[in-house]
Amino acid sequence: MTAIEQTETVRPRGTRLPRRARRNQLLGAAQEVFVAQGYHAAAMDDIAERAGVSKPVLYQHFPGKLDLYLALLDQHCEALIQSVRHALASTHDNKQRVRATMDAYFAYVEDDGGAFRLVFESDLTNEPAVRERVDRVTNDCAEAICDVIAEDTGLSRQESMLLASGLGGLAQVVARSWLHSDRSVPRDQAVQLLTSLPCSGNPAMPRQASEVS
Fold this sequence. Notes:
With 213 residues, the protein is an all-alpha fold. The protein has nine helices and no strands. α5 packs across α8. The N terminus and C terminus are likely disordered.
């Protein structure tokens, strides 16, 4: 018996899968183990057993534990970036756009797989490759928000980026706090409260003169 909880179901061995499907299966098993145990406590044995494969099969796809962890980070960092971009593009109404963006962060941390823990609560942030990916997702989300702020307000790129970094950081921290409080406030209500804060920015920001009637 591994350190994985006994109530979890270990996948049966012996099923042959196409390479891409096998890789996705291994990533799913690794995510479960890393989220439950953290990077340092997780073992490749645990991941192989959770996936229902032998260790040689696991090593055929990922040379080591760090490679597996980084592949997961790449996958889930990109998921958040795309979610934020989609939210920003979903409407031209500023208030609704801010709300949709805030909700994207809440949806991300609420996902049952707990992937946000790998990105924002990793126990491996002293590893340069991990730090680079965490910084990239934070920066790329801020850049996407910055583009919208600069377009809507006419502020300089530097000013817009400061505001965007603040908005992204606020959304991430509040969403995680909300989740760790056992979601005692309904998600829609929590997003609405966050959006209504003056520091949420965009709804109260002056639009460019040409857009003001």
